[in-house]
Amino acid sequence: MLSSIGSALPPLRHLARKLTTTAAAGKWRIVEETSGDTTTVRAVETPDPVAARQPEDQCALCTCSLPVKLAYTDVLILEQFMRPDGTVLPRQLTGICKSQQLRLERCVMQAHWAGLFPDRTIPEFDRAGYKRFARHWESDMSMYFLKQKKENGTWYYFKRYQHQDDGYKGIRAKQTA
Amino acid sequence: MSLTGRIAKSRQWLQFARHWHLLDANHQDAYKLGEKVAYHLVGKHKPIWHPETDCGDHVVVVNCKNVAMEGFDWKHKIYHFDNQYPQGRADIPAHQIHEYDPCRIVFMATYKQLGNNLVRRRHIQRLHLFPDTEMPEFVKRNISNQLEQIQLVPKKSTDYTAEERAAFPKLVRFPKNHFEEWEHTSKSQGRHPKPAFGKTKE
């Protein structure tokens, strides 16, 4: 019954390179039931259409010979490896290789800093000062290339359009206030 | 293709007119944006360009407060100001300037990309910056073209619909006898109390 559920669904891309003949394994869930003075704790199995991972399976993020790297913008992929509070699942659970796990952690950090997970953060997440502004990353390793850059600015500037949120409203506003 | 007539006259006017372009700076790198804006301010996008003919266009940049910088550049990029007068030197990080005036970073980026020549002050006069989408009526009426953004704006997790999520393939495969509770947030047990150097744990 369970195997027919797996075959009825359209073939998933990541399964195409390795066909497994095992039945779709289920995920277990702990259920507590209280009746009077007795509490029954049971493990209930729920069927999962995705087949269980075998020890000889390849890392889920290593895409054979394709030069495709995980990036901070791949939100839907990163979400699958994260907990609801924004932390990353351990390697023992997901079964990905060490280098991919490190890359995943870096991408998740970059996505959090870029504000791409508004529903998966803790309320104490630091968004002070420069962290409020938009940030983009060229690659996952670019967070390690830290160097102070001196840029030449100009005193030459003219502000044609005043905005209500401006810090400096001009000398006339100062005199009237 | 006649060179006389009303249609030919209006085509000539359109060719030599000064156009107003609109560009959205939302999540765009400041300097890459400045390069594109400078390209249009100078008029290099026109086949009739010449450095001596003033054939540049107006560019209206919108959502300047959402302009992006690479990595930690908001903290690391220090702007050095020097107007050659006493006490005219200052070193200010980019985030401080952006907090005070959201349009200044985009202004300085385009000013730099215009090169170091005598016409850049003339060209920068045709740049119109707005921190968000609010702008005066006459600017809205003048805009005739929208320029394409350089970088893709990344989608947040809340921007995806439930159908898109369901259609996306599942990459994670858990082993046999996997408990759902292992994917949930667990209460932190606190930091391991490591004794200070030189002291043994009592």
From TrEMBL, chain A:
Gene3D superfamilies: Ribosomal protein S18
Stored SUPFAM superfamilies: Ribosomal protein S18 (SSF46911)
Residue runs in coiled coils: none
Cellular component per GO, a single term: mitochondrial small ribosomal subunit
Keyword Ribosomal protein part of the UniProt annotation: yes
Recorded GO MF terms: small ribosomal subunit rRNA binding; structural constituent of ribosome
Pfam families for the chain: Ribosomal_S18 (PF01084)
One of the GO BP terms on file: mitochondrial translation
Keywords: Ribonucleoprotein, Ribosomal protein
Protein name listed in UniProt: Mitochondrial ribosomal protein S18A
Species: Mesorhabditis spiculigera
From TrEMBL, chain B:
GO cellular component annotations of the record: mitochondrial large ribosomal subunit
InterPro entries in UniProt: Ribosomal_uL13, Ribosomal_uL13_bac-type, Ribosomal_uL13_sf
Stretches for region Disordered: 181-202
Gene3D superfamilies given in the database record: Ribosomal protein L13
UniProt xrefs under NCBIfam families: rplM_bact
HAMAP family, A to Z: Ribosomal_uL13
Record's protein name: Mitochondrial ribosomal protein L13
Organism: Mesorhabditis spiculigera
Organism ancestry: Eukaryota, Metazoa, Ecdysozoa, Nematoda, Chromadorea
